[in-house]
Design goal:
The complex is a heterodimer of chains A (333) and B (302).
Chain A (H helix, E strand, L loop, with lengths): L1 E4 L3 H11 L1 E8 L2 E6 L25 E10 L2 E6 L7 E6 L1 H15 L6 H8 L1 E6 L25 E5 L3 E6 L2 H9 L5 E2 L20 H5 L7 H6 L7 H4 L7 E8 L2 E8 L20 H20 L9 H5 L6 H10 L3
Parallel strand pairs in A: 2-6, 6-7, 7-8
Antiparallel strand pairs in A: 1-9, 1-10, 2-3, 4-5, 4-12, 8-9, 11-12
Chain B lengths: L3 H14 L5 E5 L10 E4 L32 E5 L1 H12 L8 E6 L7 H7 L11 H4 L11 E3 L19 H7 L3 H12 L7 H5 L24 H14 L9 H5 L6 H16 L27
Parallel strand pairs in B: 1-3, 3-4, 4-5
Antiparallel strand pairs in B: 1-2
Helix pairs in contact in B: 5-10, 8-10
Classes of the chains: A alpha+beta (333), B alpha/beta (302).
The complex binds iron/sulfur cluster (SF4) (5 copies).
One iron/sulfur cluster binds next to α2 of chain A.
Amino acid sequence: MLKISKDQIGELLNIWAKGAKVFVPQENGGTSQFKAWEGQGKLTLGEGNALEPPKDLFFPRTETMYRYRVRDPEASLEELAPLEEKRVLVGVRSCDARSFAIMDDVFLTKGYIDEFYRQRRENTAVVALACTTAQPTCFCTSFGIDPGRAEGVDLQMWPLADSYLLEAITPAGKDLLEQAAALLTEAADEKVPAAAQPSLTADVGGVTEKLQQMFEHPYWEAVSRKCIGCGACTYLCPTCHCFDIQSENRGDSGYKFRCWDSCMFSEYTRMAGGHQPRPSKKERLRNRFLHKLQYFPERYGKFACVGCGRCLDRCPVSMDITRVVREVKEVTL
Amino acid sequence: MSTIQEQMRTRARELLTSGEVKMVVGWEKGALWYMSPPAFITDPAEVDRLVWDEFCHNNLAKYLLDYKFSDDRLAIFVKGCDARGIIRLLQDKQIEREKVYLIGINCPGLKDERQGAVLGEDKRAELPLAARCQGCRHPAPVVYDELLQDEGTAAKGEVAATAEDRFTATAEVEAMSPDERYAFWTNHYDRCLRCYACRNVCPACNCRECIFDRSQSGWCGKQMNRSENMFFAITRAMHVAGRCIECGECERVCPEGIPIMTLNNKIIKEINTLFGDYEAGLDPEAMPPLGKYKLDDPEEFL
Ligand code: SF4
Ligand code: SF4
Ligand code: SF4
Ligand code: SF4
Ligand code: SF4
């Protein structure tokens, strides 16, 4: 195993930034976000995950899909250049690493491939950072995620007092280590630190089966009362992936874009003619939990929650998915 | 005399048991010690869920809109800012006074929950006052049907802030050069997720259909980019101008930590300069400055 001094992390990022665009959690207006590394910046690689999940880097908040021009009687389409930028994503926690596998299911399987997502995903190397301290809202271990070692990443890092240990998992990870060989030394005595132990838990066993019988249960009315129907939980969730497609026109030309959408909004699922099959927050909140805990497991065989705790942390009314799981299992049918 | 929390539970039990109200809206303990989210109690057996502690932030007034078309009478607890929210909704003709029973609490000022998450429970006693409570000038409710009394904290509910305190952050931004100011606001609003938590929590945001829920109208696009985000920020600030009750809930709930009150306070300051000092949500008879016409209104721009 190799190690690098924490003082040299900036140099390490500079080396990787020569061949790719490097994204790493940095301080921004009091929050922590994956931002492009431009030689300097306040890294937030200490305790706790970035406020915004890295999903934006594969599935941006807003992206243009194509441009068009209509000049009667002709119309033309302009395709966008392929997304070829190489990226290295540094400091991804185990929970977010699992979220990539969940997003892959959505955007790359079941006979449909989302080209925008695929290109970004294939051009990105992921460097994980293990957690040694959990935040009060973390509960990743409830989904069998190991905060001490991420799944499906190229390189794993562990924090020590004043250095990081590094282990390449894939050839891409090995390549990253080779690029930085001059900064790395052999870790002789250092041991991989103990993984974080989140104190929050959710016993998710059997919850899907229970939910399958609960669509019309009065529980949803009661649990949704405090929800204010904002998009904070879904937009900060690393696995929420709903989007809307709209166009923006100026004169005879315009572009189609897609942007994130949220099942908590009144516009979502509103149909032409005004019918809204999810007219109140009861149906909307129910959909959010059913999607994560029932529909996704039914379709892809895994939960669409990774226990990152961002929803609980930032929800204006502290809606707690672990409590919902517990109460769902308790209510009588 | 019993604590506020004990009185809360007693009164909730009485009101529900007697059938005077169908539901009591208060606060309960959330997943973690620094969370006290809203609670909706309909069964007298559940009144012991109610709590009163330094994290009972949520302004409960806004929830009355959810029950606007119900015939049931509700009871809700009101701190200073919740009570101003009630006045806001009454003045905007959103709720009927007879349908809500208000139980007032003199607020001692609440604590910063985010700091709670960072510092840990050991430091609970040392947590700073929440940002939104630092400039509060009306911690005692301005409207209520009954007021809970707490001898232990009898001195609380007093005004700590001066009229100018709440404009400190706004003055700092005013002192910037135009370029610095542009950088300040764009840096913040580039992060805006357009989650609308600020709008949804706001008692002044009570339009039946919000402009931002009509993305096909062409007013504000659904793109999350600088131009649309800034349009959103300025439009919302202008839509609550003269009606914002300064509860600070918008800024507290913003998941991105955007200093929304710095913008709201700028507008309040300008309104005070142009139309004379006005505080929204205090006097139901005092019309909001932008909601009334006076012959001697300033009109320098005409
Ligand atoms: S659960 Fe919380 S974050 Fe999600 S929509 Fe409801 S209030 Fe907003
Ligand atoms: S539902 Fe909440 S805890 Fe689960 S992945 Fe999404 S944000 Fe994280
Ligand atoms: S949820 Fe687990 S992996 Fe994610 S930040 Fe918390 S401890 Fe780390
Ligand atoms: S709460 Fe914050 S992030 Fe959400 S829409 Fe309002 S300003 Fe934007
Ligand atoms: S704009 Fe903010 S401070 Fe003003 S009433 Fe609305 S939530 Fe309260």
